Amino acid sequence: TMFPSISPILNDLFFTCFIPLLFLFLCKIIFDLKSSRTVYLIDFACYKPKISQQITREKAIESLRHHGKNFTQRTILYQWKLLMSYGIGDLTYVPAPTLEDPPEISMEGGRREAEAAIYGVVDDILAKTKIKTEHIGVLVVCCSAFNPIPSLTTMIVNKYKLRPDVKSYNLSGMGCSAGIAAIDLAKHLLQVNDK
Asked: Which residues form a coiled coil (predicted)?
């Protein structure tokens, strides 16, 4: 060989630098895998509206006929089929603004509906778990169709005086999968936040 003295130097360099770095890298991976925290669901709460917000299928269709100027007999029949096939029964609750005469379909009505449901659930879960709001570090809210400004997470942070560094995420427009996505996001954030 032309440079016989370089090969042993590179060989020594490989064993003295690369192998220890590889060992440290593998130790870090093993440590990270072992130290990832398990996240548990401690409790949950479901919002149950006032009994005055309960409506039967017949009353829902009657309301569509009375207030739905743009609904034809065909669209009302379609609504009836939806009510029957999607498991909506005669003990279904609807938002209070939709029961007004005429129904209030507005951002303000949507905000009142969101506040009633969210504050009811948050109050319930805080009372059940006895968790102090200053210990909350992650907040994930999901709502399929209503996405106001300021956001629903901002509404909660302000009402419950959550700490200023709380990590808040607002998921919207995701349909039925939003709940699963929110749980997965919260789990990931709690694992990362805990390290």
From this structure: none
Name the pLDDT band for 1 (thresholds 50, 70, 90). very low
Tokens of 67: 């207030």
In terms of C-beta density within 10 A (0-12 exposed, 13-18 middle, 19 or more buried), how is residue 175 classed? exposed
| Cβ 57 vs Cβ 90: under 8 Å | yes
Assigned token pair, 191: 């694992």
Q: 84 is written with which tokens?
A: 């029957």
Q: Which two tokens stand for residue 173?
A: 């427009």
Please, how many CA atoms are within 13 Å of residue 156, restricted to the half-sphere of its CB? 27
Using the CB atoms, write b or e for 98-107: b if 16+ within 10 Å.
beeeebbeee
Closest residue by Cα to residue 144 from 184, 179, 174, 183: 174
Estimate to the nearest angstrom the gap between the alpha carbon of 150 and the chain centroid: 17
| Helix axes 107-129 and 152-159, enclosed angle (nearest 10) | 50
Q: State pLDDT tens for residues 70-94.
A: 778 888 888 888 888 877 788 888 8
| Length of the chain counted residue by residue | 195
- Tell me the whole-structure pTM to 2 decimals: 0.69
